[in-house]
Amino acid sequence: MDMFTGARDLIVPSNIINELYKNKKVSVSPEKIWDKRLRFKIQNEYVTLISQDNSKQSAIGRVVDTDIVLLQGDTSIDGLRARNKEQIMAMNALMDDSIKMVVLTGKAGTGKTLLTLAAATSKVIDRNLNYDRIILTRPMSWVGKHGLGALPGTSDEKFAPYLENYMTNIDFLLNDNKSAREDFIQQLKMEFIPIQLIRGASWRNSFVLADEVQVLNHMEMLTLGTRLGEGSKLVILGDLGQRDENIAQDKTGLWKIANSPIAQESKLVASVHLVKSERSQLSALVSDIFEAK
Q1: β-bridge pairing 76-77 and 67-70
Q2: Beta-sheet strands, E only, within the chain
Q3: Are 219 and 189 in contact (CB under 8 A)?
Q4: Contact call for residues 62 and 71 (beta carbons, < 8 A)
Q5: Residue 15's pLDDT is what?
Q6: Which of 14, 88, 111, 144 has its CB 3.0 to 4.6 Å from that of 82, i.e. a possible disulfide?
């Protein structure tokens, strides 16, 4: 089975796209569907409608109940602008508070962590919302066969070397003003917690980022997902092509959630697979070399 991407392209008559732009939604209920072969059981699936008459005419929508709802409005978060259609979809899922869990997959450099951090900071700064803090977690796993050995210090000090993925993206949001980093972290009540230490936690009114989760198995992902209390949102991020732990793809918690019919048919969950690396041409090239099927 292929990894669920959370999105698909559909070739449709032009009048369907015209109706979507006019009414901001178009019905996909069984009695009105324009193609009887299609099935829309999956909630929050992103759909790119492309005209069968003119390939340049298109629209992006999201399945909500029995409608495709037009994605409209700003395609940026606090000045961070989407660079491709998958990033537009990801931003929509991240900023919609009715979606309580977002699964973002994709190779290195596609913007998973940066987009999520931008959304989290935007939500916490907006005091009209219920998110009181940002929790950033990830496994304390290293690249390669040999780790760092026993690290000295408190749990915070031991975890610090594993936080480069978050810190570099925080610095990007601050225009590389590293001197502002500590004030930014305190202002937004950011907490850094190793996944290894989350058992027993209960996170209420929190925007939770869990990065590099491609190394988690089913039980570890279960532990993570059941930490979420009322008013919280969980975003899980990972690249299955970078599983440097001894775990098969279909045994990962990331694969299980993305491909679960229970998750796919729930209004609480959205998945987006980011395709294009925006980090650099070289980063994209190396990913293509090593992650090609």
Answers
A1: unpaired
A2: 7-12, 25-27, 46-51, 58-64, 67-70, 76-77, 80-81, 101-106, 133-138, 190-194, 206-210, 233-238, 269-274
A3: no
A4: yes
A5: 93
A6: 88
Return all residues near 193 (Cβ < 8 A) that are at least 6 apart. 135, 136, 137, 159, 201
Q: Which residue stretches of the chain have pLDDT < 50?
A: 146
**Please, how many CA atoms are within 13 Å of residue 128, restricted to the half-sphere of its CB?**
2
CA distance 85 to 87: 5
Closest by Cα among 246, 255, 244, 243 to 218: 255
* Cβ–Cβ under 8 Å, residues 93 and 102: yes
For 91-291, CATH gives: 3.40.50.300
Note the pTM of the prediction, 2 decimals. 0.90
Contacts for 26-29: CB closer than 8 Å, 24+ residues apart: 26/61, 26/67, 26/68, 27/66, 27/67, 28/63, 28/66, 28/67, 28/68, 29/66
* Residue extents of the structural domains in the chain: 7-70, 91-291
Q: Provide the pLDDT for residue 293.
A: 61
Closest alpha carbon to 218 in 263, 256, 246: 256
- In whole angstroms, give the CA distance from residue 113 to residue 119: 10
pLDDT at 118: 96
The residue count of the chain comes to 293
Please give the structure tokens belonging to residue 184.
């930014």
